[in-house]
């Protein structure tokens, strides 16, 4: 039963984190798109500071601008009109990737590059 509760709590935490990511991305976006968000997650073993450094590095390599770390957990960047966020939860061994913007092909391409090169 303990394992079930841990999975249930993790799923709830994941939903809350994705909701927070969507809100933060919306704050930095001047437009809301009909199909705005694509998101992935992956496992991460390491320190929070290493996760944030990797997030900033991959965003820089992918040509995103105005890279900033927020609250020690998330890294935001943009390449207008596309906005990206990588949310690190090293203590939970998980990293979330999210991108919004008007064109689904470009949006998915940015997300795939961030995720694969992280």
Task: Please give the number of β-strands.
Answer: 5
Tell me the domain tally: 1
Oligomer: single chain
Label the overall shape. globular
- Write out the strand line-up for the largest beta sheet, numbering strands in chain order: 1-5-4-3-2
What features would you describe in this structure?
With 118 residues, the chain is of the alpha+beta class. It has helices at 2-28, 48-61, 104-117; strands spanning 38-43, 65-70, 74-79, 82-89, 94-100. The chain has three helices and five strands. 47% of the residues lie in helices and 28% in strands. The protein has a single domain, classed as TATA-Binding Protein, CATH 3.30.310. The chain is globular. The chain starts with a helix and ends with a helix. It has a five-stranded antiparallel beta sheet with strand order 1-5-4-3-2, with helices on both faces.
Summarize the structure.
Helix content is 47%, strand content 28%. The chain has helices spanning 2-28, 48-61, 104-117; strands at 38-43, 65-70, 74-79, 82-89, 94-100.
